[in-house]
Amino acid sequence: MNKVKAILIATAVAFIAMFTMGGLWNALILEDFYISNSPEILRPEADFNLGVIALGYFVLTLIMAFIVMVNMGKNPKFVGGFMFGATFGLAATLPLYLILYGRWDFSLNYALVDTGWHFVEQGIGGLILTALYFKLYKPQASKS
Q1: How distant, in Å, are the alpha carbons of 19, 39, 60, 83, 104 from that of 127?
Q2: Which residues contact 65 (CB under 8 A, 6 or more apart)?
Q3: What is the pLDDT of residue 140?
Q4: How many CA atoms within 13 Å lie on the side-chain side of 10?
Q5: Which segments of the chain does DSSP mark as H helices, in order?
Q6: pLDDT averages per 10-residue partition of the chain, 144 residues
Q7: pTM assigned to the model
Q8: Which has the closest alpha carbon to 76: 63, 90, 86, 62?
């Protein structure tokens, strides 16, 4: 399979996985924690904009896919794919939360729990993205 088709399929599957995991985590598993620790600017549940949330996950997944397609010439295997995503999750959340915590009045527990969650969620997303991409596209085999 060609590189572009492989990355598009891997991106779609990783996006669906991370968006679904995020929904389960935020709206079911830790809903009470997130609501009780959110800043006062939290919208009422009826006003949550799922489309914008999905767009955020889509952009996150596109950036991850771009990094994989451009910078990974070989399959990082299980641990490498997870660590790529987990590192991306940390980089996408922890610095921002620390900056916001320095300026806004919100729970540090919220920031730390959510950063930990994104370590896991994007770790799994990175694993799915890299595993599927390299299963569909084999750069070493195509160079022969």
Answers
A1: 15, 32, 15, 8, 34
A2: 7, 10, 11, 14, 129, 133
A3: 62
A4: 30
A5: 3-24, 31-37, 50-71, 77-103, 108-136, 139-142
A6: 93 97 93 82 78 92 91 79 94 92 86 95 96 86 48
A7: 0.86
A8: 86
